[in-house]
Design brief:
Elements lengths: L3 H11 L5 E5 L12 E2 L9 E2 L3 E4 L5 E8 L14 E5 L11 E4 L3 E4 L2 E4 L9 E2 L10 E3 L7 H9 L4 E5 L4 E6 L3 E2 L10 E2 L2 H11 L4 E6 L3 H14 L2 E5 L10 H7 L3 E5 L3 E2 L5 E5 L2 E6 L3 H19 L9 E6 L3 E2 L5 E9 L2 E4 L16 E5 L5 E2 L4 E6 L2
Parallel strand pairs: 5-6, 13-16, 13-17, 14-15, 17-21, 19-24, 22-25
Antiparallel strand pairs: 1-12, 2-11, 3-10, 4-6, 4-7, 5-9, 8-9, 18-20, 20-21, 22-28, 23-27, 24-25, 24-26, 26-28
Helix pairs in contact: 1-6, 4-5
Length: 389
């Protein structure tokens, strides 16, 4: 059994980054750039009006309005004389010889004449060509994450595809004789399945698809399903059967299939019977069957492996320190990950921390981490807290 930090370091040292692929921008959300991206245009590509108003030729008080320029119009050939103005709208192209844009709120109009109620400075309310980005300038660096703003930014530059580290192809294998699907009759000794539902939904919310398989507690069936999952995917998650019971076959199957063990069992609660290994480039996790333990292990360990495969330089959940709002007693010598809520610099641990109870995860927005050596945490102490995505 190893400590949490050693388990995390093992994942970082062994998980390989996926190959580079070129994909359409529409599919690139949350991917990591595998190369620098340079701007094919200046941004903005021409001098733009920052608001509705009047484009002024010359610095004076009164002007004659001789043209109108809407967003999307070309003003390439339009040239005003001194004392002339053009009605102009936000985002529209500014003619070459314009002193400034007067916002419409400071203008008095009378037929084709306008009078300024205030003076305007040179280039006021004009977005100058290239002020955000010059032609061929570095737009985004290799290693940056393509979040929604980045997607919009690159689309605004006219970029249609980017090179990124390929998203992992994920298999989710759920084991257990006791599990039935919602909608079936709940006979004695059975429980409704929740691990596949929770983990596949979580993966989907992060932009990943997963192939889900269910298998009974039978050695040969488990061997076949896990073997096929490893063959077809580059990240495999198995829930249940990883402990040491008579009908727990996951660990034995991993050995039979030649999986190189990274670690097995972590000194933590929940999720002690956690397995991580590799077969070639395939990262393989055996998670506990208890749903809250499985979800905790996913957030702390599996998500880190997914992000490493995608090229993230910092794969772990964001960690901050908050002030705990109450005394907290930790029993035993294992490190604890506790479902909790944080707000305004304070954190409170939720009730019902059992590894079998998912309900305490519903309104949790973080996991409080208590190291193995801590026993009592006094109210007002700072505690390490992992922020849930």
């Amino acid at each position: 059994m190893i400590e949490v930090a050693e388990a995390l370091n093992t994942i970082v040292s062994k998980v390989l980054t996926n190959p580079v692929v070129e994909i359409e921008m529409a599919s690139a959300l949350n991917c990591v750039l595998a190369e620098n991206v340079y701007s094919p245009i200046a941004m903005p590509p021409f001098n733009q009006s920052a608001m509705d108003g009047y484009a002024l030729c010359g610095n004076r008080k009164n002007y004659r309005v001789v043209a109108e320029i809407k967003a999307g119009d070309s003003a390439e050939e339009l040239e005003l004389n001194l004392g002339e103005a053009a009605r102009i709208f936000t985002g529209a192209m500014v003619p070459k010889n314009i002193w400034a844009i007067a916002k419409q709120e400071i203008v008095v109009t009378q037929q084709d004449r306008i009078e300024l109620l205030q003076t305007v400075n040179e280039n006021a309310n004009i977005r100058l060509s290239g002020e955000e980005l010059e032609l061929d300038a570095l737009a985004m660096q290799k290693g940056e994450i393509l979040n929604p703003a980045a997607i919009g930014f690159l689309n605004g530059l006219g970029i249609t595809s980017v090179k990124v580290y390929n998203k992992p192809n994920i298999a989710l294998v759920v084991t257990g004789n006791e599990l039935i699907r919602p909608g079936q009759e709940l006979s004695k000794g059975k429980i409704f399945e929740s691990n596949a539902a929770a983990l596949s939904a979580l993966l989907e919310s992060m932009g990943f698809e997963s192939d889900v398989s269910f298998v009974k507690d039978d050695y040969h069936s488990t061997l076949k399903v896990i073997d096929q999952a490893i063959e077809k995917h580059d990240l495999v998650i198995v829930t249940g059967g990883v402990s040491v019971g008579d009908y727990d076959y996951t660990y034995k199957v991993f050995e039979e299939l030649g999986v190189e063990k990274g670690f097995y069992k972590v000194n933590q609660k929940p999720g002690k019977p956690l397995y991580f290994g590799l077969k070639g480039d395939v990262s393989i996790f055996g998670l506990p069957g208890n749903p809250a333990a499985a979800l905790t292990c996913f957030y702390i360990y599996v998500l880190a492996a997914i992000r490493l495969k995608m090229g993230f330089s910092v794969p772990f959940l964001e960690k901050k320190q908050f002030i705990i709002a109450h005394d907290q007693i930790k029993k035993g010598s294992r490190a604890h990950f506790l479902k909790a809520k944080q707000a305004n610099g304070f954190v409170s641990v939720n009730h019902r921390q059992s590894s079998a109870m998912l309900s305490s995860f519903i309104d949790a927005n973080c996991l409080v981490y208590l190291p193995s050596e801590d026993q009592r945490i006094a109210k007002g102490s700072a505690v390490d807290t992992f922020i849930l995505p």
